[in-house]
Amino acid sequence: MLKLENITKYYHSSTSVTCALSKINLEFNIGEFVAITGESGSGKTTLLNVISGLDTYEDGELYYNGNPTSYYSMEELENYRKSEIAFIFQNYNLIDSFTVLENVMVPLIIDGMPAKDAKHKANELLDEVGIKKLKNKKATKLSGGERQRVSIARALAKETNIIVADEPTGNLDAENSKMIMELLKKISTNKLVIVVTHNMPQAEPYITRKIRLHDGVVVLDETKEEVRKLTPIENNKHHHNISTAFNFFLLNLKSQPKRTILLFLMIFVNVLATFICFGTFVANLDDNKTKKLSDDIFINHDMTRLIVKETNNKSIDNEILEKAKVKQVSQVEKYDYITDINYFRPEDCSTLYLGGWQDNNESQIFVDNTTFYVKNRDRFMRSASFLKEEDLKEGKLPTSNLEMVVYTDDSSKLNSTETIYFCNPKKWGKDTVITYEIKIVGILKKPTTQAYFSEDICRMLELTNLNLKLQYPYSYVNKYWQVINKAINYNYIMIDYNLTGNEISLSPTYYDGYTTIKNNPDVTLKETNQLNLSIDGINKTYSVIINTETKFESFDEGLGVSPTLFNQIYNELVDKKQFAVYIDDYAYTDEVINALSKSDLQAISCYRSSVIGYDMEKVTVRYITLAISLVGLIVINIVIVLLCYGILKLKKNDYLILKMLGLSNKTNKIINIIEMIFYTIISMLCLIIITTIVSKTTSNTYLIEFFKYIRVYHYIICLGLCLITSLIISYYFNKYIKSKIKITSLKEE
To answer: What domains are there in the chain, each with its CATH number?
Structure first.
């Protein structure tokens, strides 16, 4: 079965070459109990290592079942050791953290046996070697003789044809030595047992053959007892990598609590630190928190307040209000401030107008809280970023601030230049008009009253700060017209925040004209500076203030009213198209806006629309926080990788023993992956429980703000990051095992 033919082995050092074995010719068969003896340095252990595949040889050939082994690849040599050789060492090589039973179960589980069957088989083997009663003891609690019996039971569990033992009784007293030799004698009835011993008199009563070596040469090969040659058993073991790995993982989990707890704590620290760093990063992404607030766009710029309208601009009814009660919406405000009406704009839209009308050959273009006048142009103004090349009939899209795209039937207009007038008294000063000579570089296919300008010029005109007054689109002015008829000649109404209650502000010039109004049943202006209006047949009286300041000099024919008065008239006469909702917290702004969009509702944040400019101090803190959290995330993961890697390396000897017992690199890799993923998932579940409790009980301002920005998908992303870290740990540890942990290191020179 096993034949050595002219086997020669050399050991090389920096200064010399030593011949450990010289032309060894031996043959072994099943049923033999062979003892190899010799003086120290004679080569007996080297011979055992060559036979068992723990060492290679330079010359000759080792045949197993007639097949030469010198051509074996590393994988084939590993399979030879795994399938055909069982080891019994002088130092036992038990896994100390396992019980007696678990140590014997290990090779069975490695061979793919289900855990239940492996446990049953291990009990039988322990009974066979006479230590079943010790099955629940840790290996560290056993005597030398007991440990060696466990080692023998484990060797039997492998069901190999060959058992090699290097000084199996070297550390035992006479009584235990006799017991071990009797066990080996019993085993040799159907296996080849080869032992190396320095105590031949102790072994002689039990062996069937003795071999003596001297200086690497066989000087004695004596058969003491003829044995019947037996046929080697066919070893057709099927290794199920995944099931084996999972069973072994469960065994590790149960049997190594200290290692389990330590690894779990390290992984949990990684998960927690990753969550904190990642969450801090997420919470600081909201750049609106670094802007300075302007109070002028909305009367109520509450951070939790959103202005909402129906996508198709339908009038507000109860059905629409019910659609707005999505998750995180705490309140729906049906009758909203009139000042919100003019300033609705979807946040993803860069449109520069919200309304306008033609009057005296003039278009008034509203941009947020700014009124622009485009003289002699009956068109609205938009950014050309909305256009594509296929929208053009002729020409190109604007590439500079002095270019625009329009619709016209007259193709000769292409490349012509027109004078465009813009004015904004509040931004540029009274009576200031900015003129641009703008070239028409493109003609649109579809008819439209909109003129498309470059994005840069649109942005330039967008920002302003109105301190006291807000203008309203003509559609609402027209409603006012219906009330007071033509008694007052005006182009628009201006809300004056200096006025309170039911008050109207008039310039002296127009007041003189108003006092002469006659024959109007709906409007009466008394000498006592009171204006009587009839609204839906109900007479109401409003105070008139003669405005001695030149508030309206930059505009022709203006009428100023108080917010209270305008709201009264608006609430009764204007078809309401907008309302407000309040959300649980500003951090849910985007979520609520997205949720409302699914119900055909558009929304904007009053707070976001009311912030202008940046608070540079807050910007600095924000970027520092983002940088620290990002760097912290990277550093913590690197540290955790190194620490966990170190913890795993501490068990180097255990992995070496497992490899000796037949655990493949592939299976070991799967075990480590399962282990790291399991700890990561458990850590994440613990984190979710802890953060849920903390978020509901904490009074810390930072933590309260922190948790407001955390969503379910943030936990998922965090889990993903930690799983990547765990897989990196597994990868490098498996690489370490493959390259550094060699089974040949078990050999004893």
So the answer is: 2-238 (3.40.50.300), 242-285+617-746 (no CATH), 362-462 (no CATH), 469-573 (no CATH)
